[in-house]
Amino acid sequence: MDKEFGIIRECITHQEKENLKISKANVGWHLDHSLKVVNNVLESLKNSNSDDYKKNFNGMRLFAFTMGFFPRGKAKAPKRVLPPEVLLKEDIENQLEKAIRNFETIDSLKENQFFTHPVFQQLNKKQTIKFLRLHTNHHLKIVRDIVR
């Protein structure tokens, strides 16, 4: 995720930019949301018990992970990962630093520690990393389109 975190850092200066033809939300919203997802998912992964993981088939997960992207406008973010009404540059920067620190600890986790996604269900550590990359890149593509 070093690459993704670097791109997020570069895009913070564009946080106020918006293009309603691309997204209802501005750049800052997408950056903040992406980082909230990373931090919440990694906390969930850390706090999971690998003994409770149950491998299962999930067609939606298979499709998204195989295609390597999420279609735009198909999902709605849970409240806990929505940005606040007033979004400060410092808040995004602090979340980015927290995400970097959180991601540095991922190697110490067990392979079957997991995160439960509302659509994809249980994702083990490897699947969670894949999900975080896909999700972050989904929002970074939107950000790039807004900035253009």
Written account of the structure:
With 148 residues, the protein is mainly alpha-helical. The chain contains 5 helices and 2 strands. It has a single domain, classed as Four Helix Bundle (Hemerythrin (Met), subunit A) (Up-down Bundle). α2 packs antiparallel against α5 (125-147). It is globular.
Keywords:
148 residues, mainly alpha, Four Helix Bundle (Hemerythrin (Met), subunit A), two-stranded antiparallel ribbon, globular
Q: Quote the distance from N terminus to C terminus.
A: 23 Å
Question: Spans of 5+ residues with little confidence (pLDDT < 50)?
Answer: none
Number of domains: 1
Report the mean per-residue pLDDT as an integer: 95
Q: What is the N-to-C order of secondary-structure elements (H for helix, E for strand)?
A: HHHHEEH
Q: Taking strands numbered 1, 2, ... along the chain, how are they ordered across the largest sheet?
A: 1-2
Care to count the β-strands?
Answer: 2
Tell me the helix content: 40-55%
CATH architecture grouping: Up-down Bundle
Sheet-strand content, in percent, reads 5-15%
Radius of gyration: 15 Å
Dominant shape = globular
Classified by CATH, the class is Mainly Alpha
The major β-sheet equals: 2 strands, antiparallel
Structural category is mainly alpha
Enter the CATH topology name: Four Helix Bundle (Hemerythrin (Met), subunit A)
Number of helices: 5
